[in-house]
Amino acid sequence: MTIMHTLNVDLGERSYPIYIGSDLLGQTELLTRHIAGKSALVVSNSTVAPLYLEPVKTALESGGFDCDEIILQDGEASKTLATVEQILDHLLRNRHDRSTTVVALGGGVVGDIAGFAASIYQRGVNFVQIPTTLLSQVDSSVGGKTGVNHPLGKNMIGAFYQPRCVIADMATLDSLPPRELAAGLAEVIKYGLIHDAEFFEWLEQKIDRLVAYDVDTLAQAVLVSCQTKARVVELDEREGGLRAILNLGHTFGHAIETVQGYGNWLHGEAVAAGMMMAVDLSIRQGWIDESVRSRSLSLLRRAGLPVSPPQDMTAEQFLEVMAIDKKSIGGSITLILLRALGEAVISTDYDRGKLLETLPHEAVGQTRDDLF
Ligand code: NAD
Ligand code: GLY
Predict the structure, then answer these.
(1) pTM score, two decimals?
(2) What are the tens digits of pLDDT across the range 119-138?
(3) To test the ligand 1 pocket, which listed residue (112, 116, 129, 155) has its Cβ within 8 A of the most ligand atoms?
(4) 106, 190, 309, 311: which sits with the fewest CB atoms below 10 Å from its CB?
């Protein structure tokens, strides 16, 4: 086992460590350090379990835990209340009491579902995150957002619920398909755009190594990403304001995911296209210059990501979904835009006409007035 970096998320009594390293999964001591009680339920899916369940189970059993498992169907389409109910049924049928620990082993989908189930089972049981995708290591496993999708909107049902620890084992990325690695890189690039121009520059230098799965470079990217995320969450755990900057590109991206059907565009892909739309609108506002567009385009493309929305999506479709985004209050769409490379703003005072210029132009049968 090599722990390359340990980082603390400082939230008072809800504080927890993030371990970033290699070959961490089978480490009894690391897991048991953060698990009280005598039993654990590992929640994983049909792709990840055959690869990584065994070492986790063995580690837990060696630590003296009764270790139970539930294997979900893979895919964003399973991120539903019905799946949460399946986990709750399993916990009850197998007599897990309030001292049990739910261990999420998988990507962001497994982590979000398992975390939400942990938050409501008997009003909340311990929860541990073992993220196995780059996206979940740099974003979804940290910060306590848990939940599921509703047919009318992404992540519309959920809770803030912090894990006891996050174990990010870089060795799990070996088996991650390149398309999924790229999706994770979208969230990594996001941190550069919203907060850290120096990190963005570092990414421009290192992107080829990242795409080539270089472990040390990936671990460094995970560390810097988690540092930014942890600091933002520490300042605004429940998204009263600042935390919304982590959603650069997400309002556009969630519309893409919802309209295309969950799972057809990967979350990171939709965020990448959404970030370019946010960059476009920020340029139209006169807040940033064209160089941010060309640098972002180049970096996202080199990461293997889409840089524009699906061709068949209309402005009307975007606006319909964006209006029920969680950041929207009273139907007014809040967007995360850029004032500079490395400086995000939460904005409702952008020009509506400019937003329409950013959205696809051919909303068949619609005039601009119809769209607001
Ligand atoms: P995912 O969980 O669907 O994982 C992607 C694919 O990779 C799946 O098929 C999965 O089975 C597979 N996989 C996972 N680990 C693997 C491994 N090591 N080797 C091989 N295959 C592996 O998707 P994701 O990108 O990890 O997460 C996306 C989800 O996260 C979305 O639902 C999104 O809304 C959510 N999210 C949540 C937050 C948050 O703060 N809670 C933040 C960002 C994204
Ligand atoms: N991924 C956005 C957040 O955690 O707030």
Answers:
(1) 0.95
(2) 999 999 999 999 999 999 99
(3) 112
(4) 311
